[in-house]
Amino acid sequence: MRRAGRLLARRLFGALPVLGLVAIGGFLLLEAAPGDAVDAYLAGIGGGDAAQVAALRAEWGLDGGPLPRLAAYLGALLRLDLGWSTAFERPVLAVVLERLPNTLLLMGMATLLALSLGSLLGIVCGARPGSPRDRALSLAAIAIYAMPGFWLGLVLIVGFSVRLRWLPSGGIETVASGLAGWDRAADIARHLVLPVASLGLVYMALYLRLMRDGMAELWRQDFVRAARARGMAGPRLVLRHVARNALLPVVTMLGLQSAAMLGGSVVIESVFAIPGLGRLAAEAVARRDTPLLLGVMLLSAVVVILVNLAVDLAYALLDPRVGSGTGG
Predict the structure, then answer these.
(1) Which end of the chain is more exposed for a tag (fewer CB within 10 A), N or C?
(2) What is the 3-state secondary structure (H, E, C) of 130-166?
């Protein structure tokens, strides 16, 4: 417990500079982009005169130079104030937190599907490397991993929504359904089947290959040979000695792929019209809403940091050497 606490403290302390770099770097990158929220607003209403432009820029805090606005933004961040969304006319934090649960639900279910199914099938392949089932599953995994997530999502929509009419093609739940309790949960689950499959199956193939290759390498290790010499065989040998040690690189890859999965969820949300952080970022870009886009970037960075923190703790539980000394 003390070891996990030290690891947690180190990771949280190291996350502060990362968030600072994301905030400053994101602000400077968006500042270098042409146009701002006033330009997007006037383009939507057909233009305006110079006085109107000046008044809007003063009202929205866009009339100062980059450095004073950066200083004001960082000062607001220290007060946990992400600013005001000109597109939604609401605080950025409220808008982002409203969309965050949908993205977390999509990512969480896709991660659970990818990790559990990929590890299970990887154990099936790695139990007998080179067998016909290993070759068949490995070939299928390579084929799935080669598919872009958005293309897989479109194929699933055509197959299961358009032709078979088994599942809804988009949204997070039925609009104005009036459902509550378990009925609403079941409705949300039906809407999430296709997007979760589109996002999770690609990463499932990656985890399957990692688990299979790790187990194939471990079969040649001395400690496995010693266990077999003592008469250990069957599921006990596979699960307790081989699969457990092969799980370490899978867990490591889970942390490394968390940012990629968050980026993949942006595309999947657009394909399936899910109101999450991905669609919110697209709307912020379209309306040149810099505070909102910065809020999405910062919250996404926090999500990735927390996922990697959970992975580090899981790694420490699997490997007692992690966090026990100066390394790890």
Answers:
(1) N
(2) CCHHHHHHHHHHHHHHCCCHHHHHHHHHHHHHHHCCC
